[in-house]
Amino acid sequence: MEFATMMELLLSGLAFTLQIFVTTLIGSLPLGVLVAFGRMSRFKPVALVTRFYISVMRGTPLMLQLMALMFGPYYLFGLQMGNDWKYWACSIGFIINYAAYFGEIYRGGIQSIPRGQYEAAEVLAQAERQEKNYIRRRYWNQAHYSLDAGDGIENHALFFARSPWEVFERELTLRELYAALDKLPHSQARRVYAHYILGRSKAEIARVEGVSKATLGESIDRGLRNLEILLKSSLA
User: Fold this and answer.
1) Taken in order 206, 212, 217, 219, is the CA torsion positive or negative?
2) Exposed/middle/buried for 123, CB within 10 Å: 0-12, 13-18, 19+?
3) Which of these, 27, 97, 102, 24, lies nearest to 56 by C-alpha position?
4) The whole model's pTM is what?
């Protein structure tokens, strides 16, 4: 065989390999995201099916999977798939195999983030929420310029200057409040803080912590009752 013929065959094989590689990435990367969320789903049937799929894909040889896709339609169902089926069987086999691995990579990355980082992100998002609240106040008060302007009547109507005693009293109250929160059980303190300080809804907190909304509401109510007792005792 001449060298030119060999190079032609090698280049054609390389082009076919690159085509399968690109197709595999395009299909397996987004499918891996769905696999990751299915694996982390709180709906047990979805999580179990996804776990079984990952176990099969990672626990059996890739060559066996490719052979099953290539010859299975004919030997199991008697279907004639045509010459193009070789490419599609290879691409589908690589996609569903790599999606299982990508799904576990995504899941590991998501679950490795500490819950405190999510709370920090919520705190950082407060600035955006305050900006949106400011825009709404400006709209409802028909203020067509900055409410922070020193010579605007809307600014005086919305923002009240506190006396030094009011500022001191507010700081003292906040200090007593946070001290009482620290004395609550950890779960109650975390939920009361998230709901009343961070402004998160009970449904959102329940979804993040993986508990029912009723259970969360009872925990917050107990926390408020305990907080009332602690504040009364500290301020008495």
Assistant:
1) negative
2) exposed
3) 97
4) 0.49
Please enumerate in sequence order all residues whose Cβ is within 8 A of that of 183, keeping only pairs 6 or more positions apart, or say none: 230
Q: What is the pLDDT of residues 21-58, one digit of tens each?
A: 999 999 999 999 999 999 999 899 999 999 999 999 99
110 near 32, Cβ under 8 Å?
no
Encoding tokens for residue 107? 């899941």
According to the model, what pLDDT value does residue 46 have? 93
Give the Cα separation of 189 and 191 in Å (integer).
6
How many Å apart are CA 144 and CA 147, to the nearest integer? 9
Distance CA 229, CA 161 (A): 32
- Among 110, 107, 89, smallest CA distance to 50 is for 107
The torsion defined by the Cα of 178, 180, 186 and 189, in degrees rounded to 10, comes to -60
Task: Tokens for 67, please give them.
Answer: 């052979």
Cα(187)–Cα(193) distance, integer angstroms: 10
Side chain identity at residue 149, one-letter code: A
